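Because showing beats explaining, we let one protein speak, sequence and backbone structure tokens together, and leave readers to judge.
___
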Amino acid sequence: MNRPSLSKKICAIALLATCFQQTHSLDRVHFYAANRFWQEPRLEKPYLFSTDLFVWRGSTCTGLDCCSKKTCLLNIYGLHNMHALGKKVPDKDPTKQENIVLDNLQQVEATDCFGHLSFNGRFREAGVNLLLTQNFDHGIFAQLDIPIRRLEVRNVSYSDCSADKKDPNWQAFLASFSSILTLYELDIRSCKQTGIGDMSLLLGWTRNYEETEYLDFIDWTLKTGVLFPTGEKRSIQNAFSLPNGYDGHWGIPLCGDVSIGLFEWITLGLHLQLLPLVKKTGMVRMKTACEQSGMIKLAKGYAQIKPSMVTHVGCFAQADHIIRGLSLTIGYSYAHQGSTKICPCDDQAFSPEVVNTDQMFKSWSVHTVHFQADYDFTKEHHRVGARVGVFVDWHVGGKRTFKMNRSGPFIGLDFLLEA
């Protein structure tokens, strides 16, 4: 929340209508892009109703691997080991030509990345986020977050990393690669999906404290609620599919924000969000041999999926209303999720120890620098206020992540309703 200064005139404007500087859905922190900015503490004005709309997009063909080194987009979990692709796959029909090819390839001695493929592609995201917030008395408010996004992996291609490219068993595999994938109901072509993400319904409490001797103000907001698994889940039919949310997991978000005002034009703020996710049981692609690597796995089965908590922390500094309604903001945030534990229902076909060596289930992290310029059109004594602006979320580091920036415009409206 912006606080222009402590002057009576500007405080009156702020109390009538003050839009959020950056209000985004809780379904905003993912490995495939820069973090999106959080919201500042809510204004403690009874019966203030706010609606905010953000639009963003981004694109990349670069990722960061487990060592934070740049790599091709689809290699963030390592090169794809085709040499061991068919090893210990359960219920494999030995009479099928495709399985014969896999078994013959497996018998070849593996040296110098033999049987490894490097995959590349381009990832694109476009999204819209609608946030509705209603204040009540005593600093209590309710929020509804509705994210909508389009995720697309396109221009998928691969290159041969083998030193011995002419090995007849390797050539037989490459010739049969497409039919092998078809046999195991797996696709590696471009994929896209458009739809609603994970919606959130929150209840919060906010305070705007101004009885300070040296600071202009101290604001803080606490909120919690439920994140609903309304987003489309990852498809096990496509190796490069991404979930439009947290892959069918319920969440219980816990959020805290605090900001202070200095010199009647500087605002400093801190943010903390914890998102515990509830375990579930579902169909998942799993490794059957430790040597297997990358996103392509033939075997699938039911397993209990226990995701780690998603953590998002950040800070920002703002030059508040430096030229009429113009404000400029710079911030930094760090997002992290620990390893996901997979417990196969059939531990005879799938070894839990082997399954959980998969880099796809290991932790990821993203570092982001945030920039924003916005203009507040709110007028004194008006019951309706408006704000427009642009933002850039710049991906500056991380591990097991797509290196993609986000940017776009936003607009916010506030309405002071009667009690």
Q: What stands out?
A: Residues 168-183 form the longest helix (16 residues). Residues 1-24 have pLDDT under 50 and may be disordered. Residues 8-416 form one domain. The CA atoms of residues 101 and 173 lie 6 Å apart.
